[in-house]
Amino acid sequence: MKQLTAFCFLTILVLASGVQTAGAGGSPALPRSTPEAQGISSAALLGFIEAADQKIDSLHSFMLVRHGKVVAEGWWSPYDARTPHEMYSLSKSFTSTAVGMAVAEGKLSIDDEVLKFFPEDAPAEPGANLKAMRVRDLLTMSTGNQDETSSAPDKISAKSFLAHPVPHKPGTHFKYNTPATFMQSAIVQKVTGQTVLDYLRPRLFEPLGIENPAWAPSSQGISLGGYGLSIRTEDIARFGQLYLQKGKWHGRQLIPATWVEMATARQMSNGSNPASDWDQGYGFQFWRSRHGAYRGDGAFGQYCLVMPEQDAVIAITSGLKDMQAVLNLIWERLLPAIQPRKLPQDRAAQKQLAGKLASLAIPPARGSSTSPVASRVSGRKFTFSSNDQKLDSLAIDTGSSSTGVTLTLRLDGREQRIQCGQGGWTKSRLQFAGSPERAVTSSGAWISDDTFSAKLCFYETPYVVNMKLRFANGQVFYDREANVGFGSTKPVQLVGRTE
């Protein structure tokens, strides 16, 4: 925390001239500046951050770039500047960028028919609408499909996509369609011989200083395209700044300016609600937004918001249930604070802002370090009957007030240990059934005499999981609830019995 505090003060108080420092991974960072030097009030920014911290549950990171310079940045601990975060559908904007680059290299045209690239995967008798589907339709989410095929890594494929009904004429019906983005990825791989990840590495990631990007593949070895990319917050900001600069980076045209204009323009109508940022039109894997802005975004609030009229970019990672809420707050609190000219320096407000940005945190579990039942349940193993969570057994070692509590879970036949920090976070790795192993940091506390609460933050993802263990009459009542999810996030309760 002291290091982050020092960094924030350095950012606010020293880098008004736009000096570059090393980035999170050692690459040159975006220039830093005071807010006032770029026409933004530090006091107004502080008000926005305080409102976001209080009203939006839960942001993980925020970065604001004005005139190409970072004027505010913060991470809600245990999230940090150096750790990549899953982008979910913000990945789509990177995939369409790969398509644009391949078009510029003459590898394909957006007017090419999709079937042209997959003759071996085509149905025996493709319908007229499928024959008419073009790359442009994949880009604009107007493939003619009424619903989606599965986008799971082990099920998604060109063959399954092409076998799916196409009841609408392509180009006439907007339907958000993650497999359509996968098809863009598959086409890029067909025409270049490289995955989208490898294709973009020298053309986009390396020039922007995006280090060690990861992109999950399908079971066939194709970058998933519609999701699966993991990068850092500043990487998002660099990508947005590249688009704001019409594809030019340090004097080099990485993306054709004409592609940037097409990709971020309104290519398809997708609604008519003036109060919704999801009804302002759709481009080539970019959403149009209110106030002349556009964005790439991903599930649970992963944002690359580009504001051309304000010459600004906002990068956000989060674990939100209400994705519109954070955009509303930007329009209500931040947009009016962005002025066309420099403002007088406000050292007092800058110091307050730096302090607030340095102290952002997702609170760990709160409660007592011990309880009257701790000694009676410590070391005992509780087993569960067959369940959807695939939790076989659970044991708790209450340790001491200094070492904290250790939970040993047997999940899907695999024994895993969770060290729960007392009043803070302890890092480990954990794998729930049906999910890959993930980095996690955990905290725990007794919230009543008979109930232990554990908070698990999967800090490379949007997910925070709360577990409650209530011990009574030789049983443990296990409740698990995630902050967000694609299915139900309602609490799941299981009952385990001591052996």
What's the end-to-end separation, in Å? Answer: 44 Å
Structural class label: alpha+beta
Number of helices: 13
Overall body shape: globular
Strand tally: 21
By CATH reckoning, the class of the domain at 374-498 would read Mainly Beta
CATH architecture name of the domain at 374-498: Beta Barrel
**Over all CA atoms, what is the radius of gyration?**
24 Å
The helical percent reads 25-40%
Strand order of the largest sheet: 15-14-13-12-21-20-19-18-17-16
Major sheet details? 10 strands, antiparallel
Low-confidence stretches: 1-26
Can you tell me the CATH superfamily of the domain at 374-498?
Calycin beta-barrel core domain
On the 0 to 100 scale, the average pLDDT is 92
Strand content: 15-25%
Assign the CATH topology of the domain at 374-498: Lipocalin
Overall description:
With 499 residues, this protein is an alpha+beta fold. It has a domain at 374-498: Calycin beta-barrel core domain (Lipocalin). The protein has helices spanning 2-13, 42-55, 91-104, 128-132, 135-139, 158-163, 178-192, 196-208, 233-244, 257-264, 323-334, 347-358, 374-377; strands at 59-66, 69-75, 85-86, 214-215, 229-231, 248-249, 252-253, 287-288, 294-298, 302-307, 312-318, 381-383, 391-397, 405-411, 414-420, 426-430, 438-448, 451-457, 464-472, 475-482, 492-498. The strands form four sheets. Strands 15-14-13-12-21-20-19-18-17-16 form a ten-stranded antiparallel sheet, with no helix packed on it. It has a six-stranded antiparallel sheet with strand order 2-1-11-10-9-8, sandwiched between helices. A hairpin with a 2-residue loop joins strand 19 (464-472) and strand 20 (475-482). The chain is globular, with a radius of gyration of 24 Å. Mean pLDDT is 92; it is low at 1-26.
